[in-house]
Amino acid sequence: MPCEYYKDALIDAAASSVAPCERLRAHLAECLPCREAFIKEQSLFAAIDSGLHTAANTEVPPSLFSSVRVALEQETSRNSGWFSDALILATAAGIVLAVFAANTIRRTKDGRERANILVKTIVPPPSPLSQETMQSPDRSANSSRSMGSLIARSPAAARRGETVGGVPQVLVPRDQDALLASYAKQWYGRKHAPLMAGEVPSATLEPLQVSPIQIPQLDVKSLAEQGSQ
Amino acid sequence: MREAARTDARREFEERLAECGPLAFRVARGVLRNSADAEDVAQEALLRAYKSFHRLRDRNRFSAWLVRISFRLALDRLRSAKRRERRDALWSQPAHLPRPATAEDVAASNQFQGHLERALEELPEKLRLVLLLSAMDGYTIEEIAGIIGVPVGTVKSRIFIARKKLAEKLRCHANTIKTR
After folding, report:
1. Is the pLDDT of residue A110 over 80?
2. How many beta-carbon pairs below 8 A join chains A and B?
3. Which of the 8 DSSP states describes residue A200?
4. Which entry of A24, A64, A115, B57 is 20 to 30 Å from B6 by CA?
């Protein structure tokens, strides 16, 4: 058994790689149990170091590098796969958008052209009367309001607010052409446009006679009077 | 352009792989005491390091970074293995059969080595990592200090404390030293 006093110093000296201090060395020289304990401690630490070296320097299996490379390859291809997928998706989306935009533009242009053709084909060559009608937009607007469904602007033209020489273009059905002309004639002659169904005579619209409401006086009685009755 | 950057990063990473791959494996092996598990952990650590390689500003800190990843992953695996072992022990009778030894385990079978590795496992994490790194070939105290990010004096004191703790645990097995 080592001396209790030197026990910790012995262990510390064995644990550190530096040589023991002067005092301990002197003690070890004259104390056999302490010397034996010190040698034992030194061999214990040497065994620990050797074991640690063995544990820490294990041979690296050659399969490690190949497996890591395979994993890296997979990771890279996954990344590039993701990237190419995204690229394909973006390209496809771009193409779809471009086709959609081109289609919309073409459709709008076609619609405009078709409306122009319609206006040219449906509206007959302007007669003096209809010209007058068209040259007075305010009046024609009033008349169109009173005419109701007789005069209809081309919806596309109305939407776009197209005009010919500052006058809004209107589409008039072929069969109502003469009617519009006669209406315009009447309108110019009378200042006030007549209703097509005929004017309602003002005499028939007599003011409504309402007799005043008769409210009888309230007969208020007290509760005592009511009780006696 | 993106592809070229990725290729460059990959090339740089592969250059470091030869140097740092063994380090990752040995750190994991020191924690797990099993080469197959250590290989898995090292592979995972290297893959994680590769994925985040572009985010590493100071490339000289790569080995320190990899050591930390590897050590952490190895500890996680060790803990989950222990949890699994405890769970299995609860359900299987007779309780706790020892893990079947691999050929490598048999080759390295040595009573003292077994005691040492178990004692190493019981050390606190920060002491264990320092001790493992100090036992590895090719790393000076200064390099270890750089890897762990602590002063040289701290590394020295940790090594000293760790060795003393191991000696305390292994003193009762000192008689087996002669049998090695």
Report:
1. no
2. 115
3. P
4. A64
Task: Say what the ipTM of the complex is.
Answer: 0.74
Among chain B residues, the shortest Cα distance to A78 is held by B51
Compute the distance between CA of residue A156 and CA of residue A147 in angstroms, rounded to an integer. Answer: 20
Q: Which residues contact B65 (CB under 8 A, 6 or more apart)?
A: B49, B56
Q: Model-level pTM?
A: 0.55
Judge whether A181 and A129 are in contact, CB under 8 Å.
yes
- What's residue A198's pLDDT? 52
Look at B135 and A16 and tell me if their CB atoms are within 8 Å. no
Write down all domains in chain B, each with its CATH number in brackets: 1-100 (1.10.1740.10), 110-180 (1.10.10.10)
Q: What spatial distance separates the first Cα and last Cα of chain A, rounded to whole Å? A: 132
Give me the DSSP letters along A153-179: --HHHHHHT-EETTEE--B--GGGHHH
Residue A142 has pLDDT above 90, yes or no: no
Q: What is the pLDDT of residues A87-99, one digit of tens each?
A: 788 888 999 999 9
Domain ranges across chain A: 4-56, 65-122, 124-194
